[in-house]
Amino acid sequence: MSSFNIQVNRKDINQYKIVKQEAPTIDSLADGQILVKVDQFAFTSNNITYAAVADMVGYWKFFPASDEWGIIPVWGFADVIASKNESIQVGERFYGYYPMGSHLIMSPGKVKPTNFSDVITHRQALPPIYNNYINTKTDPGYSKKGEAIQSLFRPLFTTSFLIDDFMEDNDFFGGSTIILTSASSKTAIGLAHLLAKRKSDRSLTIIGLTSKGNMEFVEGLGHYDQVLSYDQFASISKNEHSIIVDFSGNAKVQENLQGHLGSKLVYNCLVGMVDWTQRGGADSAATNGKFFFAPTQALKRNKEWGVEGFQQRVGIAWMGFTSQVGDWMTVKDSVGALELAALYSPMLNGKIDPKIGHIVKL
User: Fold this and answer.
1) What is the DSSP letter of 101?
2) 338, burial (CB in 10 Å: exposed 0-12, middle 13-18, buried 19+)
3) Which residues 6+ apart lie within 8 Å of 186 measured at CB?
4) Chain-centre distance for alpha carbon 8
5) Number of domains composing the chain
6) Confidence of residue 274 (pLDDT cuts 50, 70, 90)
7) Of 10, 30, 243, 287, which is most buried, counting CB atoms within 10 Å of its CB?
């Protein structure tokens, strides 16, 4: 049996290759390890952000490749096909963080009926939120029919939840206008949904900036008070204290917004790299903010609320969000390594219809 993964050049993520090799077998496993076969995963602009900021944040460390090549992490489902761990059986299915490829050897620790943590040596110093794998047999929010929505949105919505919580935790830094760039991106949509729900208790104006081609789609979501194209930034009021939540990474967009808002910009939250080719250099306007690293806020809340309390809060918010996703999104499947490779460049260059959620099946 063969295995494969998609590797990208760490210095130029436009370059990628399919690497094929013999698949691991049970003889490849040490005591306590398992071998999983990745069945399906979501491929979104979030994965491009992983690649664009990987050296800064450490995303290449999860699934090491060789030399100048790296493997982009993805969120999806995998099945156990070999096990030397008495607590995990062949055939069990887990949702979590996998390589963009077909197979993975894992070292489960802290094994419970509900989940385990991969404690393989090279991942022990990495954020624990990425090392947790959920058993579908005991996940109350799981359904086979809902796997695509879970893969596409669950990790992104968790980030949306944590940004929303971070803002509330800091009293929105005194701001009342929240400007979301790349307003059609899935994480921005999740955040706009959560912010809109806060308006019953707090005076907020939610503005979405997007490309002209996506304006009708973003307006139709109903989450934003105002939707503007990027060249309409000057119509944003300069009378209110404002927050930017930037999912684009575009240096020109940042320059325009910072210059327009001036002292009324109370917080600039840098999240994504949807428009990663326009992020500019180390001294560009796109760096004049604070990078939001979701695991930091998650760790804070896990300590304050407990792991179960955190998951419960996310779960309640998640159910409210997913109940309306089917109204505007269509799932499209790509099958196998070649179709995945064909999807890579359009995703990298932002040539993806926001109304389509891409699932890769292996």
Assistant:
1) B
2) exposed
3) 44, 45, 46, 152, 153, 156, 157, 354, 357
4) 18
5) 2
6) low
7) 243
